[in-house]
Amino acid sequence: MTTRVLMVCLGNICRSPLAEGILQHKIDSEKVFVDSAGTGGFHIGNKPDSRSIAVAQKHGIDISHQRCRKFNTQDFVDFDVIYVMDKSNYANVITLTKNTAEIAKVKLLLDVVNLPKKQVPDPYYGGEDGFEHVFQLIDTACDVIAEKLNTNS
Ligand code: 4NP
Q1: What structural domains and CATH numbers belong to the chain?
Q2: What pTM did the predictor assign?
Q3: Residues enclosing ligand 1, CB less than 6 A?
Q4: Most buried one in 24, 44, 54, 89, CB count within 10 A?
């Protein structure tokens, strides 16, 4: 059976598109489906931020085909696990849950790794450096997630 993983941030143009592309790059697409969404609706239908596209490209991953969409409550039904980038995303998603099963699906991405940092910082208002840092944090977490998914499914 396909495992369905959703990556969530606020805008769905910087962090979660990177998380979608990075995890997709590491897994067998026949066994794992990866998507991303944002809790805010500011950029619906848009491509990822050009800085996210560029940093992904630098690491050999094309995310330019992705389009922004808003997180919705059907996502609790459609996905097995929902990884959020920071505690604010967590609060926004948890507000929409209806039961403990839905709550249990929501996890902080960096909780899968043993890093001092527990949140992927929002790079939107920062420079290029922020995007490389964000890429590295997400990449480290996705290595662990992919290894688990590739062995379990
Ligand atoms: P993201 O970054 O949540 O990583 O996609 C943001 C992108 C846009 C905005 C906020 C965060 N915004 O306010 O438009």
Answers
A1: 3-152 (3.40.50.2300)
A2: 0.97
A3: 9-15, 38, 42, 122, 124
A4: 89
